[in-house]
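Item description
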Amino acid sequence: MPDSTDRFKPNAARAMASMFDDVSRRYDFLNAVMTLGQDSAWREAMWRRVPWVARTVLDLCTGSGASLPGLRRVGRTVLGIDVSVGMLRVAAETHASGGWSPRLACADAFSLPLRDASLDAVTIAFGVRNLRPRRAALAELARVLRPGGRLVVLEAAAPAPGPLSAFARGWIRHAIPLAGRLSGDPSAYRYLAQSIFEFGSGPEFEADLDASGFTRLESRSFLMGATRLWVAETGSGVGQKATATARSVQGAMPASRVSTHLDPAYDAQRAERGAWRLLQAITSTGLAAALGWALVVWVNVHDDLPLSPPQRLVGWVLIVAGLAFFSVRGVVQWLRWSAVRDAGGGIG
């Protein structure tokens, strides 16, 4: 196994492949735990920014293929490329069947087996921070994207300065490596935490996009900036530098102008899912409030009730455990509802 420091070196394809091979079986589960189950809604926001008319779409750093389902369309060719064979095996088991199934391939992001200007869109979810040097990777994407092609990047970002930045930094530094102990390679999650800080809070990546000839259309954040989404397009020629002035490329296009052209059925499904999340959030919050009141009553009267000590202990456990469970569940459901609602932004 390569030394963990090799993962931060330029063009570290072999080290990355080895690391993700080791964590492939539990990667999606731990990702859901670390994002409080919101990663699926964030991926939906990414899918919605791929133009409906895109006919050839690459999901780079596809991993286990979690980003592939929302890209599938009748008449569209979806490619999933990753450097890890282990992750691609998981993707093949889950997604490589049925109509219009994605084409999967193992390849280095710095040398894609694709012709110039052969793609309409590229998506990257939680993978761009592993590509070093980043500008060389972006130059390769500019090569394979057609003029005016769409790049959509979803990535974990370092906390920006703010009132909750200390908590966020503590979560990344300690909670993520702790969760990684459930994986086949705990050092992979220590690397994950370190790579988030190395990636930065966003301006660094935006500078790389500008320098690589992309025009930024949209930038937004989720979960108080813990995850960022960028939408960009290539210029009028392959690998061409942007001709706009520095001032003109700093501000992203308003979300309402980033067209995605999704069908009404997709919007209806999202609305139904959002309504269900909202109902669950309200129900869990209501039960937590009821159990909170029950705890107050129990504290005042439990000594006067004709109960044995074991029965009193059971009462304490049931009320306190129920209050903790529904409080946490309520918070998670509110966050999920918020994520589903935010995924609909940017529709033009």
Notes: Residues 237-257 have pLDDT under 50 and may be disordered. The chain is about 45% helix and 15% strand. Residues 266-342 form one domain. The two ends are 48 Å apart (CA to CA).
